[in-house]
Amino acid sequence: MTQHILLIVSGGIAAYKSLELVRVLRRKGIAVRAVLTQSARQFVTPLSLGVLTEDHVYGDMFDLKEEREIGHIQLSRQADLIVIAPATANIIAKMANGIADDLATTLLLATDKPVLAVPAMNVRMWHHLATQRNLKRLHADGIHILEPDSGDMACGEYGKGRLPEPEAIAAEIERLLALPAFDPLTGQPDFAPPPSAHLSGRHILVTAGPTHEPIDPVRYIANRSSGKQGFAIAAAAARAGARVTLVSGPVQLSTPAGVDRVDVQTARDMLAAVEAALPADAAIMVAAVADWRAADAAALKIKKDGSGAPRPLALTENPDILATLGHHARRPTLLVGFAAETNDVTAHAQAKLARKGADWIVANDVSGDVMGGETNAVHIVTAAGIESWDAAPKEAVAAKLIEKVADAFASCSD
Ligand code: C5P
Fold first, then answer.
1. pLDDT tens digits, 69-119
2. Ligand 1 atom 4: the closest Cα is on which residue?
3. What is the DSSP pairing of strand 292-294 with strand 315-317?
4. Is the pTM of this model over 0.85?
5. 124 and 57 in one domain?
6. CB of 229 shorter than 6 A to ligand 1
């Protein structure tokens, strides 16, 4: 199936490279429809872009003929991906502030499709605090940004701000097209569970992130968990209609839509929050809970004592939240644990299943960069055997897992 790009060309000296970009994309079999901003017309003509795209080139919001042929809302939704290349500091500032004062910016505000901005500008404009602030905001809004190259610039200066080569932009476009569709509200890939995955009326409890175990008021023991996998699972469960409680350790993630979040720091806090959230139909324990904490955390900052010998750090074991639930009077009907292992992944997971009293263990190999990374390859270990899933974005793993949870409930209520 042909994939479609809506290419917005905004006005900068690099606009001429958009012609080569169209050529590269067309060679890859990707259809391109172009929108030229008013100032981009100073650098590229609608005619040359139209010849290369073999399509009408759009530009004027108030052109009745254009609006009759294809309305701007439709235009913003027909593509699989919207690409702004080059994206000037001006269009980036408008996007960051939701300004819609021409066709290009109106489309960007009306779209429900993923957006890639490829900035190109003078090096000082790139480094300006306002531009950096706007880019940060776009990033937080889920807009993809392909960073400019460094090098000699058309204006005679040297530095960051050059439009990447068309081949590099095309490669990023292909990468984004290969991702699943996006959720317009979260800006995240929309791995909506299939219609069969209904969890309405169910309460799903999820733990996520690391825990921080204090050593003294300024130091703590932690791990590299980002919380991404747990948050994705909570988001997928909410999309499937469940009431979701997400008990999270310290992470830099925003709360998924429709999820009740309880923030905690330590394993003991997490256990208390989990128990307070019961009863739950299913609990999915994704948190990388610290196994140990400082035996006696100091109330005041520990100082060097001048002897040169570090003070020994005595540790004590934390409660095992998963195992506690596994043997709890109010044990959730379905209890799922995670097992992050660097070796003998499935053998360890099988042992954990029994030891923790869980129904499923989702085992993953964290010897690579899973912790903090975007993808995950997991094995689902149950009493019935082992299912191995191919490496996939964490959101896709989450959707598949929630589908499996929904199936489990559907089959036990049949
Ligand atoms: O034993 P291990 O830490 O590998 O077990 C991992 C699983 O157990 C995860 O589901 C994790 O959330 C859970 N766990 C827990 N409390 C702990 C340690 C691990 O709930 N103290």
1. 667 778 888 899 999 999 999 999 999 999 999 999 999 999 988 899 999
2. 339
3. antiparallel
4. no
5. yes
6. no
